[in-house]
Amino acid sequence: MKLYDMVLVSMFAAVVAVLGLIPPIALPFTPVPITAQTLGVMLAGAMLGSKRGFISLLLFVLLVGAGAPILAGGRGGLAVLFGPSGGYILSWPFASFIIGFLVEKNFEKLAFWKVLVFNIIGGILFVYLCGISYLSWIANMNWISASISALAYIPGDLTKAVISAFLAVRIQKSYPLIKARNKQAA
């Protein structure tokens, strides 16, 4: 990996960590709080592409696992990854990969609505599928009950998907990070 790629990967891991400074919103009916960090997951995929987005969030998850208190609320450590939020957090590298892959495949005709759909597919549907399944297993909950508790996240996550799509399209038009990587690889 080139130095340029390492800088971008590290920078986006830091962006997700900084989004963790925004206090989480605890809900009384679920052990998983609402956080701003999935915005960083969506941005990493949409702006860095599949490979660098995946590595960026993998680095973030490894730092969390090593005990760095970079999750919302100052959380970190293996206990968090094996706790109720673990499925959501562990899905982030793959969610970023999915978003990045879809953006790369549609880069020449990139539009706001396409990136919004990609964010919903990777950053919401995939993350929810992993997070809800893991929560139901860890907390010994019915999958339907875990799914119903996740409905509270939808308005915020749709808002994050819109913000990410808007920013990603604007930035890709002015300074295309994905296109720059493809040119370097050629």
3D structure, described in words:
- The protein has 9 helices and 2 strands; from the N terminus they run αββαααααααα.
- With 186 residues, it is mainly alpha-helical.
- The chain has one domain (3-185): Arp2/3 complex 21 kDa subunit ARPC3 (Orthogonal Bundle), CATH 1.10.1760.20.
- Strands 1-2 form a two-stranded antiparallel ribbon.
- α1 (3-19) runs antiparallel to α2 (37-48) and α1 packs across α3 (50-65).
- The two termini are 15 Å apart.
Class derived from helix and strand content: mainly alpha
CATH first level: Mainly Alpha
Average pLDDT metric: 93
Number of strand elements: 2
CATH architecture: Orthogonal Bundle
**H-E string:** HEEHHHHHHHH
The 3D shape can be described as globular
Helix content: over 70%
Largest sheet: 2 strands, antiparallel
Outline of the structure:
The protein has 9 helices and 2 strands, in the order H-E-E-H-H-H-H-H-H-H-H. It is mainly alpha-helical and 186 residues long.
SSE layout:
Elements (H helix, E strand, L loop, with lengths): L2 H17 L5 E3 L2 E5 L2 H12 L1 H16 L12 H4 L4 H20 L6 H27 L4 H8 L3 H21 L2 H9 L1
Antiparallel strand pairs: 1-2
Helix pairs in contact: 1-2, 1-3, 2-3, 2-5, 2-6, 2-8, 3-5, 5-6, 6-7, 6-8
